[in-house]
């Protein structure tokens, strides 16, 4: 009787779990069957949902319910707190599995090459997100001394950063933020948040719902300058062809014509302002310089030569995420992705046998979480085609127990799916006395203990 198709998935975030789901729904799951092991460097699964989504977005975090249903399947095992390549290498994975799928995502900040970016008070959005989401591998404190803060970028991450900076700590207390984050935000001095985009309202990458959520807080006054509401032929064409872009533009138009209210925290959305320099004194941020831009007819912009200095003491760049290079795999430095064709890893013009990618490591950090399903389906379809055509490597130790023994020999202390349930229960127990759904456990060692590892 043929053995099940053994697949390792490195990264137990949405992309990796969607790939597992695609395998479970394939014909191979019926004959010869599938056996899937997910390897995750954190002690807990869910990746971006747990460590990249703002805590005041329970609607998005609700995706975990669907991911839970996948991981509950008996064909799947979870190995948390296992690092690639520190604990297990690509060659070693190929010893145990017919195929390996990498779904490691992107959690670093893309660089912004302007003078002053290195100053104290200049931060990457990804680092701030990791802090307020309780990532175990970042510092427990965050400097929130600035009264006025700039956020560079017009995507959803910029909105998240601006909203968290503008809200009060008590507004966020009902969420799952850990105690150290609540204490840090309680001391936050920011009263003015300025979000900057170099192009116009029609080119903003906000999701309509996320944009409107800015106005839901009783402490945040969202302000848009009427002079920033401008469109050229390219912008009008974008609005006509893209419903979301049109909805974003309409929301911004409505905010631009209303009177400024009395809410204590002011959040300004600036358009046609291109950051050119972060200003500093004695190594510390004291301002931001921007160049005013104008539309060129195509929806793009050009500089006007008019500069403005903004009085801010902190700058957060939210200009995109970047994946970490994966050892033993080819790498495209410019895009921050693994070269591939339909999820098949490509090196020197040839498919790397039995090796695949999906999610942001495959296509870059663009699109919403749900978009990774299409990636996973295509990657898994090509993996299964390679299996049917006999193109996969034959592992030398395909028995599931071989992986457990290998990790034990390495001294790896790993968590399991059952361990996640224990950790989940521990976090919910911490929240119960406060009337909260959960309080996230931050320290890695505490997570391991709670999971029983």
Task: Provide structural commentary.
The chain is an alpha/beta fold and 453 residues long. Helices cover 34% and strands 22% of the residues. The protein contains 17 helices and 18 strands. It has helices at 14-24, 47-51, 58-61, 63-71, 90-96, 125-132, 156-166, 169-172, 179-186, 208-213, 233-241, 243-257, 360-363, 372-388, 400-410, 417-431, 444-451, and strands at residues 5-10, 34-40, 76-80, 99-102, 108-109, 122-124, 148-152, 192-196, 220-224, 265-270, 273-281, 284-295, 301-310, 314-317, 321-322, 340-341, 344-347, 350-357. The strands form 4 sheets. A 7-stranded mixed beta sheet has the order 3-2-1-4-18-17-16, sandwiched between helices. The chain has a 6-stranded parallel beta sheet with strand order 6-14-7-8-10-9. Strand 11 and strand 12 form a beta hairpin. Helix 1 packs across helix 14 (372-388). The longest helix is centred in the C-terminal third of the chain and has 17 residues, at 372-388. It starts with a strand and ends with a helix. The model has no long low-confidence stretch (mean pLDDT 95). Its EC number is 1.18.1.2. It comes from Streptomyces melanogenes. Belongs to the ferredoxin--NADP reductase type 1 family. It is an enzyme of class 1 (oxidoreductase).
């Amino acid at each position: 009787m043929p053995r099940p198709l053994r697949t390792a998935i490195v990264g137990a975030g949405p992309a990796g779990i969607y790939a597992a789901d695609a395998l479970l729904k394939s014909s191979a799951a019926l004959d010869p069957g599938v056996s899937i092991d997910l390897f995750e460097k954190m002690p807990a699964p869910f990746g971006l949902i747990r460590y990249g989504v703002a805590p005041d977005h329970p609607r998005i975090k609700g995706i975990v319910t669907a991911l839970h249903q996948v991981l509950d399947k008996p064909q799947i095992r979870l190995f948390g707190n296992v690092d690639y390549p520190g604990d297990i290498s690509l060659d070693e994975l190929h010893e145990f599995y017919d195929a390996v799928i990498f779904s490691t995502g992107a959690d670093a900040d893309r660089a912004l090459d302007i003078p002053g970016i290195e100053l104290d008070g200049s931060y990457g959005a990804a680092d701030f997100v990791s802090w307020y989401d309780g990532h175990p591998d970042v510092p427990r404190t965050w400097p929130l001394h600035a009264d006025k803060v700039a956020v560079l970028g017009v995507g959803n991450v910029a909105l998240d950063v601006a909203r968290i900076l503008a809200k009060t700590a008590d507004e966020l207390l009902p969420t799952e933020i850990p105690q150290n984050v609540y204490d840090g935000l309680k001391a936050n001095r920011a009263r003015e948040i300025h979000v900057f985009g170099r192009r116009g309202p029609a080119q903003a990458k906000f999701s309509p719902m996320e944009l409107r959520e800015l106005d839901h807080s009783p402490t945040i006054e969202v302000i848009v300058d009427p002079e920033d509401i401008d469109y050229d032929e390219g912008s009008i064409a974008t609005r006509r062809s893209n419903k979301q872009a049109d909805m974003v533009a309409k929301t911004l138009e409505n905010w631009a014509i209303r009177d400024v209210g009395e809410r204590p925290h002011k959040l300004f959305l600036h358009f046609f302002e291109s950051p050119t320099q972060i200003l500093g004194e004695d190594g510390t941020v004291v301002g931001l310089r921007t160049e005013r831009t104008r539309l060129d007819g195509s929806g793009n912009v050009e500089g006007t030569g008019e500069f403005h200095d903004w009085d801010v003491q902190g700058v957060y760049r939210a200009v995109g995420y970047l994946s970490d290079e994966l050892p033993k795999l080819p790498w495209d430095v410019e895009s921050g992705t693994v070269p591939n064709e339909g999820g098949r890893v490509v090196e020197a013009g040839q498919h790397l046998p039995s090796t695949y990618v999906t999610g942001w490591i495959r296509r870059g950090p663009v699109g919403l979480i749900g978009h990774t399903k299409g990636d996973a389906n295509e990657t898994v379809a090509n993996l299964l085609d390679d299996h049917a055509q006999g193109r996969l490597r034959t592992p030398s130790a395909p028995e599931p127990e071989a992986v457990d023994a290998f990790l034990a020999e390495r001294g790896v202390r790993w968590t399991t799916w059952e361990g996640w349930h224990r950790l989940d229960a521990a976090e919910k127990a911490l929240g119960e006395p406060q009337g909260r759904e959960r309080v996230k456990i931050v320290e890695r060692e505490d997570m391991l203990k709670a999971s029983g590892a």
